[in-house]
Amino acid sequence: MKNRIRTEAAALWQLAWPVLIGQLATVGMGVADVAMTGHFSAEELAAVSLGTSLWTIVLVTAMGVMMAVNAVVSHEIGAGQTQRVPHVVRQSMWMGLGIGLAGCVLLNASTLVFDYLMLEPQAQEKAARFVHIISIGMPAFAMYRALYGYTTSLNQTKPVMLIAVAGLAFNILINWLFIYGRFGLPQLGASGCALATGLGIWLMLAAMLWWMRHSPVYQETYPFHQSEPPHWPEIRSMLKLGLPIGVTYFAEVSAFSAVGLLIARFGVIEVSSNQIALNFSSLVFMVPMSIGIALTTRVGQSLGEGDAERARFISWVGVSLGVIFSVLSASMITIFRDLIAAAYTSDPAVQRLTADLLLFAAIFQLSDATQVTTSCAIRGYKITRTPMLIHLMAFYGFALPIGCLLGLAPDWLPWRPQTPMAAAGFWIGLVSGLTVAGILLLAYLHRISQGRIRLSANSGKIAG
């Protein structure tokens, strides 16, 4: 059994580590934006923080919808139906274009929310401009995620890594040029970050298309030897699978982003500290998420082959890997939280509050790693609706209500702190919501994996 666990853990990691590097590089764009504007001015950092709150909600929701491509292609590959893959990928690109354009429109309209947050006029104007500029990358992002799901389902994850690293390098260079106004260019501050990220995403899409065209690995299933118009039944099938994933991602990221928006009333220091802590937490989160993406592929392929027992085994190995990493990451965040804060900003007040919030980030590592790896394993079973409901309940039934109670301490509530806990109160709520999600998803994975084994056994008896 130990050898089997080690073999499966190695197989998962072989898939996950290039995804991890790619995910870290992608999130690194946001890290670079926050860190580079943080050393420019607290005002520009606040604008990036507020704009990123909206951008992240729409971006991650679109990413969730497009994750259906991974589950669908993995099942087709496992079942040996490779002839269907090109059609699925072409239709996923049409779906991505539609999702991306809708996201672009939604992003630009969502800046109206800044009118209700009691922001300083200059901060509101800069945050809105940031969103308007960065929205140009949304269509490219959704189509890139279609190709991302395709290539990872073929067990080809290194292109994702290399392209994302190139995108990060481009982002940092353009940030440096436009934030600080190098070589006679204008100092654009937050707007320079938005321009760098939007253009970087289009570059990543072009690079992925070029890689697929020239790599022999893709030739058997290469989707662009021919073109075809949108085929609504295929797109509807993927949307049926992907929309609940998108809502699941929306529930989590909107809860985190809503915290950033609600904290805005407490001032620039609270906003900036909260964004830095969230930004670093997102960076660490990429490890269990990368394991989860590998899990979706491995579980989907096993179920496509009809091996429910192996799918269950892979699921629990992957969840265990995520939990082990979370213990290590929680320890490291606790020990080095002051250094992490100093790396992001030179403002002493922001550094102190950030270090305090990173303690909460350390606490929720276990539940966060558990919920993401478990939900990804469940997606490998092509089940998305129940995880969606669990996440909605966890974040909107626990995380945000508890956060608002402690963070805002509204006068009309009889049970509340004497003074608002501000960011700390909201982070306690987030810890609560993630814990609820982790526990419920573990129980559901146990139930469906056992049920699929029984169903497979009964089908075998009937066939015999």
In brief, what are we looking at here?
The chain contains 15 helices and no strands. It has 464 residues and is mostly helical.
Any descriptors?
single chain, 464 residues, 15 helices, transmembrane helix, MATE_fam
Could you explain how this protein is built, in words?
The chain is an all-alpha fold. The protein has one domain (2-456). The chain has helices spanning 2-38, 42-66, 68-78, 85-110, 121-134, 138-153, 158-179, 190-214, 232-262, 268-304, 308-344, 348-363, 365-380, 385-408, 423-463. α1 (2-38) packs parallel to α11, α2 (42-66) crosses α6 (138-153) and α6 runs parallel beside α8 (190-214). The mean pLDDT is 87. It comes from Undibacterium rugosum. Its main location: membrane. Keywords: Antiport, Cell membrane, Ion transport, Membrane, Transmembrane, Transmembrane helix, Transport.
N→C terminal distance: 29 Å
Ranges where pLDDT stays below 50 over 5 or more residues in a row are none
Number of domains: 1
Oligomer: single chain
Q: Can you give the mean pLDDT?
A: 87
| Topology as a string of helices (H) and strands (E) | HHHHHHHHHHHHHHH
Name the overall outline.
globular
Q: How many whole angstroms does the radius of gyration measure?
A: 22 Å
The counted number of beta strands is: 0
Biggest sheet architecture: none
**Number of helical regions:** 15
SS-derived structural category = mainly alpha
Residue share in helix = over 70%
Strand percentage lies at: under 5%
